[in-house]
Write a structure and sequence with these properties.
alpha+beta; Glutaredoxin; binds zinc ion; 23 helices; disordered N terminus
């Protein structure tokens, strides 16, 4: 990347949300009409936004000018931004109670966004016709970010309009059944809300006090069960904590399913999504199981017999019971929760073999989980990855200062046991984290699709030690060189040492 400071790193290189996809395609196709079309469209849009920003300035709307210019946000080279889609309809309606000139600005801006959304959607359909499903999806998502109320695009991503909101089929089913979503109590019959808020609880067909319920649910067998679209959380801590965790995992699920849609759908299925004559697919999502113990002591006690070293962990996914285990209170760690829940998603969505990575390629299983554990929210975006996240700092120190590196050909030959029992396990995890960042972000993301395909191959058990080289179409030795160049191109590291007792040795006891 050739940047000298952390600050410069965030300076825009290219313009639109979809450039990563574009540069990936551009790198493998010499003359490409579709990519040229996307570039032209993006540039035309940028110019229209710039004229609108100038108009704002002429009207004394400095802040609005700034916001208009910022809309085509810079692509950050080292992290992935996934737009958060608003649920409430009417994003493009001018806000009420504003001055006429501000309303005028908003209307003009909204008109440009709608026009851009239609153009991107047309390009997405063009991509589908050319059999380029991944690019089509990126374009469709960028279009939906422009116009969140575009009905065709909403349908494509599984939403339907319901009482002024965009809802999934699951949500509509619950709402029709008379439930509402309560931010503290989760899904609840509408008629219960007032009593819940006053401290009453419905328990086995009668109303009792919240304290009484706490006492009755203090053992896990009789704990609270929180159900959301993709999760079923059992906990004896509290209803509120169960709801909070389920919501957190729903966010992970949303990002994961957008990023790895190619992991669990075929090109034909994606093509079918784009055909608006089709009825929306009836989905019956898997509900992933989570257990949240009240505290660490109960977590240790319950899992000790199966995991003798459980005290060292702060959460784990158990493939045998297909369940994640965590504990509430001091010691709970959100990034570990995302890490383990990512193992669960890859394992349980799609048709995975019971022991992926057993013979070789184990690193990518950990790499993907470490990448997703960086999930955070910034403004209107979910953010993943980054060269200053703890795992990446460790990866850089180990590579640049300790000069630790196992050539990729050898690294890919490591199976689960070799990897997990290696005395240098911390350094292996660091390298896996560094490589995942590299394959996601190197050169505008040119290997991103290959990495997703690689993960799919490994989880299906159809991989071999040279799969990664085959899927990228690049020799291992060349990938080694590119990785080294990538690591060296990053801004200077702060002086630091790696604590050998970091989380990497504390999780994944069962994997
Ligand atoms: Zn792991």
């Amino acid at each position: 990347m050739g940047v000298g400071s952390k600050h410069n790193l965030f300076v825009a290189r290219l313009l639109a949300l979809l450039i990563a996809a574009v540069s990936f395609v551009a790198s493998c196709a010499v003359a490409d009409e579709l990519v040229d079309g996307i570039r032209r469209q993006t540039e035309a849009y940028r110019q229209k936004l710039e004229s609108l920003a100038r108009w704002c300035e002429s009207q004394g709307l400095t802040e609005e000018a700034e916001r208009t210019r910022r809309w085509l946000h810079p692509v950050l080279e080292d992290r992935l931004l996934v737009p958060i889609l608003p649920r409430k309809m009417g994003t493009l309606e001018p806000p009420e109670g504003e001055s006429p000139v501000r309303q005028d600005w908003y209307r003009r801006w909204a008109a440009l966004r709608k026009e851009q959304a239609d153009a991107l959607f047309a390009l997405a359909r063009g991509a589908i016709r050319q059999g380029r499903a991944a690019l089509a999806l990126d374009l469709a998502l960028a279009a939906l970010h422009e116009n969140p109320d575009h009905e065709g695009l909403r349908r494509l991503f599984g939403f339907q309009a319901y009482s002024g909101y965009w809802r999934t089929a699951y949500e509509v089913r619950r709402l029709r059944a008379g439930d509402v979503w309560h931010e503290r109590f989760g899904w609840l019959p509408k008629g219960y809300v007032a009593r819940y808020e006053q401290g009453e609880r419905f328990y086995q067909n009668r109303w009792i006090s919240a304290e009484e319920e706490r006492r009755l649910r203090s053992s896990l067998q009789n704990g609270w069960v929180v159900e959301t679209e993709h999760y079923r959380v059992l906990t004896n801590h509290s209803l509120e904590e169960g709801v909070r965790l389920a919501e957190q995992f729903e966010r992970l699920n949303e990002v994961w399913s957008r990023l790895f849609i190619r992991f669990y759908t075929t090109d034909a299925q994606i093509r079918a999504l784009f055909d608006l004559r089709n009825r929306p697919p009836v989905t019956n999502p898997v509900q992933h199981r989570i257990v949240l113990f009240r505290n660490r002591e109960e977590y240790n006690a319950a899992l000790k017999s199966r995991y003798p070293q459980v005290e060292l962990s702060v959460g784990l996914y158990d493939g045998a019971t297909r369940c994640c285990y965590f504990f509430a209170g001091p010691g709970f760690d959100a990034s570990t929760a995302y890490h383990e829940a990512t193992h669960q998603l890859f394992q349980e969505v799609g048709r995975s073999v019971p022991n992926p990575g057993f013979r070789c390629n184990y690193w990518v299983i950990e790499g993907a989980a470490m990448y997703l554990e960086t999930l955070r929210q910034e403004g209107d975006f979910f953010v993943l990855g980054g060269i200053d996240t703890p795992r990446l700092l460790a990866a850089r120190v180990r590579f640049l200062q300790d000069r630790f590196y196992i050539p990729l050909e050898k690294f890919c030959s490591l199976g689960m046991e070799e990897f997990q029992t290696d005395s240098r396990i911390g350094a292996l995890y660091s390298q896996a984290a560094g490589l995942t960042q590299f394959f996601m972000h190197f050169d505008g993301g040119r290997y991103r699709d290959a990495l997703v395909n690689f993960l799919a191959t490994v989880y299906l058990g159809r991989d071999n030690p040279s799969s990664l080289s085959q899927l990228t179409g690049v020799r291992f030795s060349q990938l080694d060189e590119q990785y080294a160049a990538y690591m060296r191109s990053l801004p200077n590291l702060p002086m630091m040492r790696i604590e050998e007792t970091t989380r990497e040795s504390k999780s994944d006891l069962g994997q």
